[in-house]
## 1
Amino acid sequence: MVWWDRKNKATERPASAPKRSVPEGLFQKCTACQAVLDTSRVVEALRCCPACGAHFAMPTEERIQLVLDPGSFQEEDAALEPVDALGFRDTRGYGERLRLAQEAVGVSDAFRSGLGTIAGQPAMVGFFVFEFMGGSMGSVVGEKVTRLFERAEERRLPAVIFSASGGARMQEGILSLMQMAKTTAALARLRRAGLPYVSVLLHPTTGGVAASFAMLGDVILAEPGALIGFAGPRVIEQTIRQKLPEGFQRSEFLLEHGMIDAIVPRAELRQRLAQVLGLLCGGVP
Amino acid sequence: MLSPRHALDFERPIVELEQKIAELRAVGEAQLGQELQQLEWKAKRLQQEVFAQLTPWQKVQLSRHPLRPFSLDYINRLVPDFFELHGDRAFRDDPAVLGGLGRWQGGQAVLLLGHQKGRGTQENLRRNFGMPRPEGYRKGRRLLEMAARLRLPVVSFIDTPGAYPGLDAEERGQAEAIAKNLEVMAGLPVPIVAVVIGEGGSGGALALGVADRILMLEYAVYSVISPEGCAAILWKDPDKAETAAQQMRMTADDLLALGVVDEVLREPPGGAHRDPDAMAQTIGAAVRRHLDELSGLFRTSVESLLSMRYAKYRALGRFSG
């Protein structure tokens, strides 16, 4: 079944984290079709709704398992730690926010990257950790993305990045904005070196991440129902003072408007990625 | 003289004093000479005092001052033979982005790019308050690629609240348009000098602002999000914009300290809008100096120019480990 002839309209709707109205863990309600779901079955179904197919958020560790060959991930730069360069304080200090996020999620910042293989094809791969401050890009994320592109060039490997991010991290101010330029400059070099880059857009990919390397893939894939855009829907509604149409800024909308190459359901992601990487790397030697 | 109608809160006492001086002068009484001199001295002192301790939020206000010179105000003063070019060759011309050719202070031919705000309601609507749509960035890209082919250095003026967050802009790929410009500017094989003259509003500013040298006017600001937007998200209270402006470190001197900006251009007493001619002269000389330096490098080795630009951005960011 392809995405555009799905009977159930609800499947085209967002797929953020399912709401928990019953004791943690056992059951959850589908945010799209409202079905009450057995959580263990949702996990088995790759964090998709067994009833309607809606894609829920997938923890980064599970994403790595899903996409890469077992045991092939050699993580790099895991020791990079964020610092509070501006001494930023909103209702909480940035340092404290970082510590809380690190404790809750178990990673140092919002991006994990390294060398891995996808159906035997080696690639430099990176994964946004949306659970960590909304996958926002500050200095650490920017540095890791930059190194990923640089290493892909050095090692003559394709690059693959799975983006899920609200955009640049406000708490690092202008330094976060400059990560857009820094990462994209590294990508520009990778391109001149004739190496491919596949960008996979997950729910949601907006702001400074969308407006830099995420929208610059040689091939751009997206999961069904992912929110993708520059400005968030609330900001747009405030600007134009009207409700946005159903499905606006979703993967299906972007495909229709020529902004992405294909929508790939999670269950097919690994196989389709392997296929496209093989083709992109298959030029005349 | 600044009319009180356009004066910011902290400018008002100065303007009122200046008005009083003007009135006295109009009376033309000879015996008032000494008193006038004293008043003028007092007005100058007051201005110095106020401007010596501007808060970040007051600088945000100055960067958005209704009388602040815009890109065209400087171009008209510095590029006598400016030839404006229009359109992205795909959809439409975006008046929020300015592009064209001309000789910098009558010397080197350059490509000029900039955000352009409007003066007054009608022009502001036409220019969308300086908030570009994708076609504006794509016009910029077309001209940048032309400049690279023809070995024309680029001078870019940054002055925008941000890229337009509208339905049509999203539909036509605002994110991609910005992203593509970052890529093109990062690898553009000609010298690029950017001058932040007013508001540097996030990705919408950066999309014309990847450069070998970034100069910034003393009371211009540049940030990852507007202070209002930051306050609404982090404090859940738009009234905290003043605090957000302070926390984000978005003034010219902040950005110089953070290594983002290469040079801060001092403004005339009271700000650029008090003396646009003087401000233009400062910009003209500084840009020319940087263009000369960069052109030297460009003539010897395009690769060194590009490596230097890469190293500049490569070094931005703070982390440990």
Note: Confidence is low (pLDDT under 50) at residues 1-14 of chain A.
## 2
Amino acid sequence: MKRLVLLLTALRSLLKNRLRTLLTMLGIIIGVAAVIVMVAIGRGAQSRIEREIASMGKNLLTIFSGAAQFGGVSRGGGSLSTLTLKDVDLLREQATLLSGVSPSVRVSSQAVVPGVNWQTTVFGVSPEYFEIRGWKLAQGEAFTERDVRSRSRSAVLGKTVVTNLFGDASPIGAEIRVGKVPLVVVGVLEEKGQSGFGNDQDDVILAPISTVMSRLSGGTNVQQIYVSVAEGKDSTAATEEIRGILRSSHRLGETEADDFNIRSQAEISAAAATTTQTFTLLLAAIASVSLLVGGIGIMNIMLVSVTERTREIGIRLAVGAKSRDVLVQFLIEAIVVSTLGGLLGVALGLALAEVLPKLAPFQTQVQPATVLMALGFAVAVGVFFGFSPARRAAEMDPIEALRYE
Amino acid sequence: MTSATAPVPVLAAEQVSKVYSGAVPVHALREVSLVVDPGEMLAIIGSSGSGKSTLMNILGCLDRPTSGRYLLDGVETSGLSKNELAELRNRKIGFVFQGFNLLPRTSALENVELPLLYDRRVSVKEARERALEALARVGLEDRAGHEPSQLSGGQQQRVAVARALVNRPKLLLADEPTGNLDTATSMNVLALFQELNDAGATIVLVTHEPDIARCAKRVIEISDGRIRRDELVKDRLRAAEMAREAAALAEVAS
């Protein structure tokens, strides 16, 4: 039979049963729209996490105090304080691949202004820290190298701390007490929001490392050293350079293991990306199930339609239709339904992906590849589930079919 | 048959048997032999269960004999596949089914052109032209766009006849062509068959009504799967006259 005529025949018979065709399509429409929206939400979350990780600082390497070993049992990173300010100085002097080095000590403490107090985390850092971690100032200024040398009592507050201690008032120049130490607020950090791991990055007070070490934490060890790899330099090479410097600083023999850990931002990003990809995949899988259900709907209706049209099939076979002609006719019907449903589903999915972020706290990101894949999957579903009813029609015996009431 | 001048018979069945296998095998046809020459108008009669439907299915290449040979227009059919039989039906046979069997919600024209759509040699344009021609031949050219539900029973059957003619078949095969029609309309349809036969068409019709059979030139009677009677019709009815009489009677009655 002529191809065009076959297509027209299929279209006409779909038009004759408009309501049924629409209902059959509905399964595919919802399935395709669900896949597009779900993947868009997953991708939205993924790109948000990626952005946040990038906001933690470019080319960031974090050096932790080494894992202490007691009788062969690792106590985890940071359980032994091996990093010192001397290491920081050595890195600054000797490293060639780094653009910034900042020590960090962390103290959990109560911040108090008259009438209010707030439990927060105080970080003792050097001025390079702002650059390394990508912190920008919303108000005031950061402290300087001079402040570090003079152990000045200046502090830069995160947005959350400001809100809780001062409300809407400007805190610049105000005095807060941290533990028993009075500090003067010199700057406010720009908001970063929640980290990809769910903690509030703005709930923080930054103060000069010297001030924190001498007045709050005590001791001479630093917990972490943050370094940023210079623009265009390889972070693996930088890691090796740091290792060399620290190993000689710590006088480690050939056979001794590192007493520190170096972790790169790239690793953390990769881990987070894997997590969100899994999440996206899961959402897509759930949505695909609905597409599959839509396909079963097509099969169901096609089976009914084939049974209902047994006489028609008998007539066609008797006047000379070959099995293949009948097969193709019904297959085309299934494919037209699934393709048309797929296209409508794409339209619905794109519309939902556009509207949803305005109604709920999701971000969506539609990728053309997803749209094409969902559409392709819909067509494939039509072929797959249309095949068995079409085959049933094609294999009918014309005599039986003509006699069918 | 062996002489060079003799025409090829339209159909020739030789010792055709059909057995439906089952727990108890049913012998629907027992060694039936039958030759129909061009220009014949043959009626096959028989009660239900006589095997006439089975015979018709075999003559129409819808079914294959269990044993024996069947030649349609000189083509041996026993070795043909399902698809080859479909092609043979498409090119050599015109069917008029019992109960019209038109596609619902499809115009008369589209119903008529249906067989040609399955013939690769015929273009879409030619199919349309020939369908219109066939409709004109049964006097329904002005109903081309009507759907079956908008046509009377007699008109529907004429559309079915047009569909059977559209592929210019060697054999016109009609199964109870007047089954659902009143007498006047039945006679009108038969008059059409007689007219086609006069013009040279070879027609085989299967019926259980003796009056219908008397419109044919030759009648065979089947019972128990065998041909019991094969004779020429002596006092052949002219269906056109019968139709006029029936119409006149109907008028008087109303």
Note: The radius of gyration of chain B is 18 Å.
